[in-house]
Amino acid sequence: MATTLKTPENSAETDAADQPAEVRFRMRIMKGETIAIGPGKVSLLEAVRKHGSISAAARSLDMSYRRAWLLIDEINRSLKSPATISEQGGQSGGGCVLTPVGESIVKLYRDVEAQAQNACADQIESLTQLLKP
Amino acid sequence: MATTLKTPENSAETDAADQPAEVRFRMRIMKGETIAIGPGKVSLLEAVRKHGSISAAARSLDMSYRRAWLLIDEINRSLKSPATISEQGGQSGGGCVLTPVGESIVKLYRDVEAQAQNACADQIESLTQLLKP
Fold first, then answer.
1. Most buried among A32, B37, B82, B127, by the most CB within 10 A?
2. CATH code at B30-84+91-130
3. How much of chain B is helix, strand and coil, in % rounded to 5?
4. Are A120 and B112 a contacting pair at CB < 8 A?
């Protein structure tokens, strides 16, 4: 099948006109108008896990520290138990790590993307067959 | 399960703070930088089917005629065989109907959304359980 799952590892963009079709699944869990869990917040949690602080995670995503902090705050406010723990060091200086809840969110979310694509492989193949090569 | 699939039929927005979590699945099939098949284009095809012309479809989606026409043109250029047929009547006056290919795209796309949500029901339930009620 000429489709691949879009993940942070293979998301390099090229502008070749005849590259194969690429499938992106995105799930959002909404609470009212707010995206409680969605691709942006999960990518931010992964960046926090990788870089060990909100400021470094924000830089890695080309996002302002303020926006990253507000998103993390929004995630944690929406959860029964927080997804991150900030270590001492002041508002922008301290480290930040994922809690077990944060780890679960990342794992469940990425499982959903992969499993959705597997479950819909036949329809995705039918759709891509309708496209010009 | 306190989650419902977001569809055009039940997408009325409210700002009640304690409404149940709502799950939205969105698939995009990319060709390079272009979304060949995605939620916006599928909603536009559905509106064309319902309203019988690009201009009426555009109005129903609060979209300019020009933008709707360009999106339909982009869809048809990306396909081996077009998704719509425009009837006589000039650039903005004529009717527009879906071809069997257009009908297939709508059906396959909506099947993907429903099937993805069914396949991932366990993970979605686990994620929503982490949210405050």
1. B37
2. 1.10.10.10
3. 50, 15, 30
4. yes
- The C-alpha of B50 sits at a distance from chain A's nearest C-alpha, in angstroms, of 22
Closest Cα to residue B37, out of A114, A104, A25, A92?
A25
Encode chain A in three state secondary structure. CCCCECCHHHCCCCCCCCCCCEEEEEEEEEECCEEEECHHHHHHHHHHHHHCCHHHHHHHCCCCHHHHHHHHHHHHHHECCCCEEECCCCCCCCCEEECHHHHHHHHHHHHHHHHHHHHCHHHHHHHHHHECC
Cα–Cα dist B9/A17, whole Å: 36
Q: Evaluate whether B36 touches A131 at the Cβ level (below 8 Å).
A: yes
Identify the helix (H) or strand (E) that includes residue B25: strand B22-31
Q: What is the value of ipTM here, to two decimals?
A: 0.79
- What is the chain A residue with the closest CA to B104? A127
C-alpha radius of gyration, chain A, whole number: 17
Architecture of domain A27-130 in CATH? Answer: Orthogonal Bundle (1.10)
The residue with tokens 């992964």 is A46
- Each residue's pLDDT, cut to its tens digit, for chain A (133 residues) gives 444 444 444 444 444 356 788 898 899 999 888 899 999 999 999 999 999 999 999 999 999 999 999 999 999 999 999 999 988 765 556 799 999 999 999 999 999 999 999 999 999 999 999 999 8
Residue found by looking up tokens 């039940």 in the block: B10
Q: Mind listing the pLDDT tens digit for each residue in B2-54?
A: 444 444 444 444 443 567 888 988 999 998 888 999 999 999 999 999 999 99
**Chain B stretch 30-69, residues whose beta carbon is closer than 8 A to a beta carbon of chain A:** 30-33, 36-37
